[in-house]
Amino acid sequence: DIQLTQSPSFLSASVGDRVTITCRASQGISSYLAWSQQKPGKAPKLLIYAASTLQSGVPSRFSGSGSGTEFTLTISSLQPEDFATYYCQQVNTYPLTFGGGTKVEIK
Amino acid sequence: EVQTLESGGDLVQPGGSLSLSCAASGFTFSNFAMSWVRQAPGRGLQWVSTIGAATTNTFYADSVKGRFTISRDNSKNTLYLQMNSLRAEDTAVYYCAKGLWYSTAWYYDYWGQGTLVTVSS
Lengths: 107, 121
Description:
heterodimer; A: mainly beta; 7-stranded mixed sheet; B: mainly beta; 4-stranded antiparallel sheet; globular
């Protein structure tokens, strides 16, 4: 199975900060990676797919990059509504796998 | 508006069975792969199973293989998950997710609100 390791697992930041989350795959997955956001008690919401394609309706402050084994999600200027948990997911190979999550909290 | 609405979650004893449903609307259901993803209390997301648009292809996590069966009825726009031989570690919120086809892969762009399955005596 392909393991996805997210770092950090917890991040404390202020409104307006630039935030970067990393996802490393245990083997190459080309660009078959998605990023999702989840708020407490809510369903996950797709932000980015194919490593860097912004999902319709998602603010442009979110961006994704990377290929192969290393990927990043960047929030250019953190907004109050962005405090949530973020997950990466690989769709290159079954079984599909998720990273362990990065919780972004208010400093 | 795309919607997926899960139902069927309940409290069930270890070794018991449960059937989940996911009613889809707002898109041509038969054209899209669908998946089940679960989340144990306080834990991260775990993929459970995927079924292709034409129902011929199914995939399962090792942890549920042989116990869970995914199926779909395209005439009813409904996705199912039959869960047998349930274990305490199957306790989770189960989400159904709609596929998004892009560059030879299925991503998941709409998720329901989930249904809670609790396995306990």
